[in-house]
Predict the 3D structure of the following.
Amino acid sequence: MVDHEDFDEAINMLLDPLISGNHITDSQHRSIILAFLAQDKPKFALQYVQIRQPPQKDLTDIQLHVRSLEVLSNYKFKKSCFADRRPFG
């Protein structure tokens, strides 16, 4: 779903309560987060991290979580900057 840019459906499937966190391996968690970030969808990456709470066993896991937060905060900052721009005159 993510590779076909159907992000809403992808996140719904990935966060389905019938899917246990035990069914998803650590490397799959990383791949899911990276896929959302690569598609410029940090909001979905962060939502996945917050709900699924994948284990942060090594530095890579922590870096992915932080990267999700950074990208999302940069996106929100840029959005607010553009929203504050008013035409001259």
